[in-house]
Every structure is written in C-alpha cells, then in structure tokens.
Amino acid sequence: MESLTLRASPSSTASPPLRLPGRRRAASVRVSASGAGEPDLSVTVNGLKMPNPFVIGSGPPGTNYTVMKRAFDEGWGGVIAKTVSLDAGKVINVTPRYARLRADPNGSTKSPIIGWQNIELISDRPLETMLNEFKQLKKEYPDRILIGSIMEEYNKAAWHELIERVEESGVDALEINFSCPHGMPERKMGAAVGQDCALLEEVSGWINEKATVPVWSKMTPNITDITQPSRIALKSGSEGIAAINTIMSVMGIDLKTLRPEPCVEGYSTPGGYSARAVHPIALAKVMQIARLIKEEFPEGRSLSAIGGVETGNDAAEFILLGADTVQVCTGVMMHGYGLVKKLCTELQDFMRMHDFTSIEDFRGASLPYFTTHTDLVQRQKEAIKQRKAIRMGLQSDKDWTGDGFVKETESMVSN
Ligand SMILES: Cc1cc2nc3c(=O)[nH]c(=O)nc-3n(C[C@H](O)[C@H](O)[C@H](O)COP(=O)(O)O)c2cc1C
Fold first, then answer.
1. Contact, 222 vs 256, CB < 8 A?
2. At what angle do helices 156-168 and 127-140 cross, to 10 degrees?
3. Of 96, 124, 303, 311, which has fewest CB within 10 angstroms of its CB?
4. Where is this region: Disordered (predicted)?
5. How far is the CA of 150 from the centre of ligand 1 (A)?
6. Continuous segment of H or E residues that includes residue 150
7. Is this structure's pTM higher than 0.85?
C-alpha cells in the first residue's frame, strides 16, 4: 500500500480525520427547538465540515457568485463551482445545448423529465472573475465549504499555475474534472485524461505534488471498468473520488427533419446524459468504487456520489453504498435551490424509519450484500436444499437446528 500524506484543509488546523473503517454508531441526535430529537445530517469529509451531505455538483448551479450564494443561503452542505481553466477565451458554447427525455414515449410535456443531455463546455467566464467571486463567497461564508473544480490541458506548468491561483482564492478543496465527455477531449482535457490510465497517472501526479488542499478526482463513467482510473487517482494521492460525470449520449433524431438533437445549425455532437435515468448506472459505478476503497485503501478515502439525485431516498441509496457526500446538478436545474430542504427532510425520514441517528450509522451498510453471480447460484442452491430438507424431514439427527426446530419437528409429524 502506498503511503499518503493527507492534506489539511485551510479551515482545519489539525490533520484531517481519516474515516474509520466500518461503521460507528454516534450519539448525535440533535435536539430541535420543540425538544424532539432529529437525526443528525452533518458530515466531516477530509476535514471539511458540512451541515448536511448535499453538495451542488459542478455545472450551471455553481456558475457565478449569485447562484453559489443562493445555494449557501438555501442550506446546501457545500458547493462545487463550475469547472474553470486558465484561458476561458478558448471555451465557446453553442445554443441550444440541452435536450430532455420525458417518461412518455410521445414526449408529452406533462410527463416527467427522466433524462437530460448537455453539450455544455466548462466555464466560459474569465478565471480572474471566477476567483474574485470565490474570494467574496469565502469572505461572506467562511464556515461553508466551497470547492473549486478545475481542468487544464496536458501541460504540467499550466496545471500548477491553475492549482496555485484557485487555492489562493480560499477554496476548501479541489475537484479535478477528469471526466467532461464532450468538447474538451478534443484538447486532451477531461475524459481524454480520465479514460487513459497512463495519462491519468502522469497528470494526477502533477496535481497531487502541487495541491495543498484535499483533492477529489471526478471520474467518467464512459469506460469499461471505473475502478482502474479510480485506483490510479487514489494511488497518486487524491483524497477522494467523485463519480459519476455524465454518460456519453445522443438524445434523439428529429423524425421530421431527420437531424440529430440538440440541433445546432443542422448538426449535433454526442453529449453528456444526466438526471434520473442515469441513477442506476451511477449506483453501480459508486458501488464499484466503494468496494475498491474498502478493499485497497483501508486507511480511508472519501467518495462523493453523483447521478440522478432528486429525492432523499436517492441520496440514502448512495450513502448505503459508502458515499460520504451526495452531489446534485440536474436536479437543481429542474427544481431550484430549495430542493435541498426536501432532500434533508426525506433523508431524515429514512433515518428515523431505521432509528439511525447519524450518517455514519448507515454509510456503507448495503455494500457487503453485493457478490458474484456464481456466489448467488451457490447461495440459492444451498437455500433450496435446506427448504427441501425441512419439507422432507430430517435425514439425520445431526441436521436438527435451533432456529428451525419447531418447523423441523412439524415436518416429521404425520397428521
Ligand atoms: C448542463 C450541465 C453542465 C455540466 N457542467 C459540468 C462541469 O462544468 N464540470 C463537471 O465536472 N461536471 C459538469 N456537469 C456534470 C455534473 O456535475 C454531474 O456529474 C452529472 O450531471 C450527473 O449528475 P446529475 O444527474 O445530478 O446532473 C454538468 C452537467 C450538466 C447537466
């Protein structure tokens, strides 16, 4: 196992506490004004303290001062800003750049939106402007967690300059965008790095030798085995993994014009798919990364789960797999910043149902129940054998069990 120096966040003086392997039942019921105990949603991840695990995912909901301030005011646990690079002048967006999939196969506008495609690039705002806004936000909300999302070309000096300048703005951590599926790979950025393990190892090395705040590497799902690049990012010193970014998609073809969508001057390009439709895929990827962390990084690394979260139950699923925080991007674009209140209430309802008092009470609790298909077959064979044995009566006195004793007795009675 590689040794790793965990970086302290600027807001913490002591070393960031490592996550304890296994679960810990904390006596952390908060007492509300009415005196009733409320499940505690607060989390501490890589030394960063958040009032709840809900974090704005990088994208339009974290694109400027006004909207990030709104997120803090509404109560989001943290904000990850829209991805920035050194030269925003190279980032040129098109419109329309979003397309939506509705549940109704005929696309009735009354039916719910289940899928969202975008061909949006990273931030097209000047870096200096974004950095001044980060500074202002940290001044106004010193106790709130602001994370800078960054991406650069395949150039060590450029990455180092970007890291230095973004850190100077006072952000609490960095999320590295190794995963933007469109536009940026053409410049050897984003998913071009996240999909190439050799490139990723080199670039991750540059990043982790420079960064002095915690680093979360954001991975692309557009790869056969997400654990391979995740392992490399963690071995290179990243404190955590964030997953998933959007899934490569073509939203559809207009059957009247025969042109693909979203259609820009008659043409389109594959984009990134998000929202509810990607949630099951995100769960599978997060499960794989959680197992990787548990099995190969027992000293603990953090996991920020993303993909199709619109309810507290969606978030509970990610946490049950081992996520420390849960990011929401498209959900905010559809429902607004007030969504966080509903997410918190629903997550607390879930916790109450199981008598969980803290997030740590159930984080990772469902992870041990994933196994191989071969093992499922074996388990089923065993279960059928036992059920048959009970029906047919016991073959030998050694087969009596304590739990099934009454049923076993019944199975051998003739009337
Ligand atoms: C319009 C749009 C723009 C996005 N821009 C970024 C970005 O700049 N950087 C990034 O890391 N992820 C970006 N994402 C990806 C999201 O952060 C998130 O990983 C993905 O959409 C899945 O989560 P969701 O279903 O909650 O949206 C963007 C997503 C959307 C929909």
1. no
2. 30
3. 96
4. 1-24
5. 13
6. strand 145-150
7. yes
